[in-house]
Amino acid sequence: MRLRVPPGAPAALKVLAAAGAAPAPVRPHLGGPAGESGTFTPPPGAHSQPRGSRLELDNGTVLFSANAICQYFYLCRGEEPTDLTTQWLEWEATELQPAVAAALYLRLVQGRAGPDTLGVLQHLLAHLEQHLARSGSTHLAGDAASVADVVVWGSLFPVLQDETSLPSELQVLRSWFRSMSLWEPCRDAAALLPEALRELRTHLAQHPPPLLNPRHEPQDEEGPERTLTDDDIAAAVDIWAQGPAALPPPRQPRTPVLPVEGERNVLITSALPYVNNVPHLGNIIGCVLSADTFARYCRLRNWNTLFVCGTDEYGTATETRALEEGLSPQELCDRYHAVHADVYTWFRISFDHFGRTTTPQQTRIAQDIFQRLLARGFLLQDTLEQLRCESCGRYLADRFVEGTCPFCGYAEARGDQCDKCGKLINAVELKNPQCKLCRGTPVVTPTQHLFLDLPKLEGQLEAWLERTWASGDWTANARHITRTWLRDGLKPRCITRDLTWGTPVPLDGFRDKVFYVWFDAPIGYLSITANYTEQWERWWKNPQQVELYNFMAKDNVPFHSVVFPCSLLGADDNYTLVKHLIATEYLNYEDGKFSKSRGVGVFGDMAKDTGIPADVWRFYLLYLRPEGQDSAFSWADLLLKNNSELLNNLGNFINRAGMFVCKFFAGTVPDMVLTAEDQRLLARLTLEIRQYHQLMEKVRIRDALRCVLSISRHGNQYIQVNEPWKRIKGDERDRQRAGTVTGVAVNVAAALAALLQPFVPGVSAAIQGQLRIPPERCGLGPGLTCTLPAGHRVGTVSPLFQKLEPEQVEALRQRFGGTQAKEPPPASVPTPAPNTSAAPGDPKLIQELTEQVAKQGNLVRQLKAAQAEKAQVDAQVAKLLELKQQLALAEGRSPEVPKGKRKK
Amino acid sequence: QVPVLQTNNGPGLTGLMTIAAHLVRQARKDQLLGSTAEEKAVVQQWLEYRVTRVNGGSSKEDTRTILKDLNMHLEDKVYLAGNIFTLADILMYYGLHHIMVDLTVQEKEKYLNVSRWFNHIQHYPGVRQHLSDVVFIKNRLYTNAH
């Protein structure tokens, strides 16, 4: 056991005092590392406490906390910690130490006089005084000096040194401090102090001043619901009165979409999906669906918007897969490209162009960027060692090699990873390597490669990032990942590969090589645009007019924030670089990961087989969008959100608003006479719409969706409170009120159609159809406006959503849970909502059913009490159960099936 | 904010570490505080580290230091106190959860020992409670090769 106590450590005193008080089986070394030990690993905490004491125990354990060392000495002599000693030690570590550090800093570094420095300690000294005075004992935890006394004394002594520096009103504390200082172990330790303080001064001066209060992260800006001011209300009433004039004019579709000077030109890309991976739900929400929602929003705002994406088709994986399937890589890509395109069509992704990377444009643009980088000296040559199979005449990518694992000896390890021990392998380290195709023995061969000189571009990159971050919206994770990369220093990155399926490298000596996918793939954004329009450069070489948004999952961030910008900055051709980088976290599947090979999770091509409409998928995925942190897809939650948010909240509101117009006003929107209450509703909803715009502009899609749902919740409440179905039967005034409420509600429904369009375009179109909203009144206004004036005729109103049943969802969960049978059951068709006259959630229906259940329940009890015939009782009980079930459905609960009943 | 436990006898207890240790003793699970003097001191040390360093509102820089410290410490240990599961693991898990959920895959790989320990603790019976399961990926995404 060895104890090292550096003399400059403020904590040295307590350790020495404790060692003396509880005779420790150890002799402390003062000063640097003890002679007999040549090297030692710095203990944890070394980064922040370079002057710490350390105690190395015989079993190799290291104690680096002075308090733990003191505790250890006391434990060795048989004194167990108590609640009270633990509490003092914790208090000393969390409260006293930071304050003491601040006081010492003031005195030793800033040279303030003793009494001045005690200010920061005042309340802590008062706490000690109070405790000692109240407990009536001479020491902190009882009447003998315990570890608590030593630790607190050791902390205080460097600041106080003498009890007379304590304010005279702290009498009890003074006498405790004096008796501690006179106690032999403490006195011996204190003799070292002058030396220690000098060292401490140097230490403190070299470090940032201690912070007394931990910094607090700014609170989330969304507080409780804002109170409405008169101005809010006046503004909302004004917007309402403007009617369709408040909406932006609908955009005239132009093909091709090109930037227009003086307009907001938005270029949106979503990460290019790799062609032979069928995208799963996580991929879909991560880029294409998020980008689509934003693109739709931009178009609704009448911004000039181009949204491009495509499949990333080059690379080893495609080549391998093609070999396995006996196809040419191009044939394989053709096949899978079609699969992708189908999936996205089904999900209603509104690409302006969905292209691919295997086009002549890609070759032309990638080679041009390469030549420019070469000409400007941003490329390096270096040699890599790679396995080459002579009989196949090719260099082998990692996954084309098998051999014996160098770690565990497993004979069939792959070139990138051992399946047995799971360790990552560098292919050239495999023992007895074999070419997977011909079983020949590959040999390690040096091969020349080209590298992008990132270190040389680092300065340019940082300057660009600084400018971009000042005005662009980058998600926190994107900024963070980028910073991490920069902090760790950029290294040259290899941009070539020994393959044939790729963009050829146009340079002598490298003509048998192709570009590595990460260099090549992002250029796909440019080439895909070039295949869409010859005038692609107006988008991609026009940073003055074009705002570029990149959507992706977080694993793609470095390529879009560091590597690709470096290529473009180095090529120096006035390229449009990313302004807003929007990265999501990961979506997990039911507490695990999506896995194609294990059949876990829902993949794009299967989503339509579930029988759940595309818009429900879109809604749920956007509702879950992993903004800020990972989220998880869950079937039970999907059912809940469908039945509660879509069906009972949104669908119910829009349906009722439309139904009231049809039923009570023969399909014609009635006259509206706004009361103060209606105006408050308009103001409230206008605030929500404003919030929606703010969030959407910052691409906080999930939060914006919450705003939409909140609007329909307000709408439901409004209907509920005003009960138009009752008032319509009342006198003239009541009838007029019913008209106003219905009219306002149906206009809110019309506004929802527009607000929902980016999220659930199919549902939005259905609402527009049912309410017969003319296309020019479907834009997004700054607030709630009257787009359906009195006299407007609505069409046929029908339910927008269907209920999901637990059995149906459970079947799907099992089918996609990875343990499914080989033959999946045929997709179940969603059962239509129960046949009730009003949509579920109707308060009137609920009330009626509740009354009926109560009445029927009484009847059953009466019959039973009167000992009626069993058949008669059973019939009434069955009726009661039926009613209860209807009630449950109306309330949106899943009806409980009384299973145990029969056994009785 | 410092937690306070109001007990039936005597004044209340203040501080996360104090209260947790008290409850552990109440529940007769003293082994969670370590058995030997060495173990007890080590548990004490990590509880202190937990309340002084891993205390919520820390900066990115602090967080990085903490993860570096722990990653180094856990290199050759199953639990914070070596081979025994203790209160230090439980409280550290709760202290780190908000940090771990926000880590990128790259960072989780960088702090591999912390990730391994964290994943182990979150699946330890009864530990996770209401907190979300943090997912760790088995296959590495980022390798050091360029």
Description:
The complex is a heterodimer of chains A (904) and B (146). Chain A is an alpha/beta fold and 904 residues long. In chain A, the strands form 6 sheets. In chain A, strands 7-6-5-17-18 form a 5-stranded parallel beta sheet, with helices on both faces. Chain A has a 4-stranded mixed beta sheet with strand order 2-1-3-4. In chain A, β8 (379-389) and β9 form a beta hairpin. Chain B has a domain at 30-123: Glutathione S-transferase Yfyf (Class Pi), Chain A, domain 2 (Up-down Bundle). Chain B has a two-stranded antiparallel ribbon with strand order 1-2. In chain B, α2 runs parallel beside α4 and α4 crosses α6 (112-122). Classes of the chains: A alpha/beta (904), B mainly alpha (146). At the A-B interface, α2, α3, α16 and β14 of A face β2, α1, α2, α3 and α5 of B. Chain B: Keywords: Acetylation, Coiled coil, Cytoplasm, Nucleus, Protein biosynthesis. Chain B: InterPro entries: AIMP3/p18_C (IPR053837), Arc1-like_N (IPR053836), EEF1E1 (IPR042450), Glutathione-S-Trfase_C-like (IPR010987), Glutathione-S-Trfase_C_sf (IPR036282). Chain B: Positive modulator of ATM response to DNA damage. Chain B: It is found in: Cytoplasm; Nucleus.
Keywords for this entry:
heterodimer; A: 904 residues; alpha/beta; five-stranded parallel β-sheet; four-stranded mixed β-sheet; 31 helices; 48% helix; 10% strand; globular; disordered C terminus; B: 146 residues; mainly alpha; Glutathione S-transferase Yfyf (Class Pi), Chain A, domain 2; two-stranded antiparallel sheet; 6 helices; Eukaryotic translation elongation factor 1 epsilon-1 (chain B); cytoplasm (chain B)
